[in-house]
Amino acid sequence: MTFIDQNTEVADAVPAMSREERQIRDYFWATMGLIWQRQAIFGAAAILTMFYFDPLKSLACYGAVLFTELNDLILCRRVTREPWLSERKCRMYKRWIIFNTILSAVGICIFIFIVAQQQSIGGHFTPLFFLFAAALFAAMNNHQIFSVLAVRLSIYAATFFAIALMDIFVVRPPLSSELWLHFFTVVFVLYFVIDCSFVFLKFYRKNMRQLEDLQAEHERTKAAYRVKSQFVAVVSHELRTPLTSIKGSLDLLNSGALGPLPDKMKPIMNIAGKNSARLADLINDILDLQKIEAGEIRYSFTPLDVRELVRDSVEMNRGYADSLKIGLEYEMDERDEAYIRGDAKRLAQVMSNMISNAVKFSNKGGTVVVGFQRHDDLVRITVTDTGRGIPEDSYEKVFGKFTQVDSTDQREVGGTGLGLSISKQIVEHHDGIIDYTSKMGSGTTFYIEFASWSQAEAA
Ligand code: ADP
Fold first, then answer.
1. Is residue 256 part of a domain?
2. What is the pLDDT of residue 412?
3. 23 alpha carbon to ligand 1 midpoint, in Å?
């Protein structure tokens, strides 16, 4: 028999993201995230240049830049819709991104160059600053794919040089003139932009490596968890089969169906019977927990009559309560209707766990009362005992796995410490809550609470 975590199987059906795919997705994520910021920048630049320079030329350039933005947006949408990208698609999208980058960078540079042309020689403060801002923006936000960043920055760098050299070419000034100073300043600024790009690129790559390490660790943990789950499931099953026959034989012998047992044998057989029952409980609990954690439990949700749930659970546990001489009653107004939506079998398991605990931890002669109340749209089912109570701050022990409030060797009552942990997971799968109130020496009330269903909904 194989036990496979179905959730993991589904997750494994989509291959882990490759480095290239992550870069492409990160690139578009950044592009989409800054879309309005870019529009504001382009808009402001267009208004400025339209006011101070040739409005028609500025408007045409602005239109061209918007067109490249639209191209990017279309590509972005396409990639976002793809659940995963094959190597071939990664290459295709990368080429597409580079093409768009060339279009957009050339568009921006033509815009800036036209502005520079309309200015007097040596006075290119505005276009050079525009270009500097564009280059810094790219270094900060478009560094995910190195080749894309390199293409964009190369186009910007060429424009930087073109604007600075244009004046030198026309005037042919001596090296001591301001125009050469402008040129060297441009070189300095370019170096600064490239340095900035490398810093951002390094940060991004470091983050990506850390993410990949984490992912690999996660895969290893998942694999180890799968092996552990299979191991637990197989071992528990292999134990359960022979144990069922041992327990059955012991029960048969203890019941006297095969003839009376010698008096000397009786206590030993009794202990053997009780311990085999404990072992069977433990194995069943472990199997349940393993199934819940592996997502293998199938819930079948139906409308449930709360009165019926309470009544049936009480009757199911009456034998156990009688054997410990504890009273077990239900307290409810039969006319008070309440419905919830749930899995009858699993909720009966939760009820049995709460009731058997209440019985188990009751003092001799005590009584356990089961009932329910409705508060607005909620139904609360309660199991109240007058037993020893639970000390404060024991929540983790009560609902933890393999934990008990009294875990000493001297404890009088047995148990696996798994029951309430399983119950909690079942109740939470019903979008409900399970909790308790308790007073040491006076008793405990465990309760589960669910959204109520109106009769019409239940019908
Ligand atoms: P167990 O198999 O030990 O009963 P559970 O998960 O059902 O495991 O319960 C966990 C622990 O919570 C118990 O061992 C006990 O210490 C405490 N507990 C649960 N119900 C009660 C109760 N009604 N009264 C006192 N203690 C309780």
1. no
2. 61
3. 51
pLDDT digits 0-9 by tens, 207-236: 999 999 999 999 999 999 888 888 887 887
Ligand 1 pocket residue status of 386, Cβ below 6 Å: no
The residue range of the domain holding 101 is: 3-222
For the chain, report the end-to-end CA distance as a whole number of angstroms. 40
Residue 160 and residue 105: Cα distance in Å, rounded? 12
21 with 146, same domain?
yes
Q: What is the pLDDT averaged over residues 118-141?
A: 91
pLDDT, position 458 = 58
Report in angstroms the alpha-carbon separations of 35 from 60, 197, 348: 20, 20, 55
358 CB within 6 A, ligand 1: yes
Query: CA distances (Å), 57 to each of 52, 54, 107, 110, 439, in order?
Result: 12, 6, 12, 10, 83
Q: What is the pLDDT of residue 5?
A: 38
Distance CA 345, CA 300 (A): 9
Give the number of domains in the chain: 2
Binding site membership of 417 for ligand 1 (Cβ less than 6 Å): yes
Q: Give the distance, in angstroms, between the CA of residue 250 and the centroid of all CA atoms in the same chain.
A: 48
CA–centroid distance, 389 to ligand 1, in Å, is 10
Listed residues 166, 200, 222: the one ending a domain: 222
Kindly report the pTM of this predicted structure.
0.59
* Mean pLDDT for the stretch of residues 413-427: 87
The C-alpha atoms of residue 46 and residue 40 are separated, in whole angstroms, by: 10
Atom of ligand 1 nearest to the CA of 361: 24
How far is ligand 1, taken at its centre, from the CA of residue 283, in Å? 18
CB of 289 within 6 A of ligand 1: the answer is: no
163-180 tens-digit pLDDT: 999 989 988 889 999 999
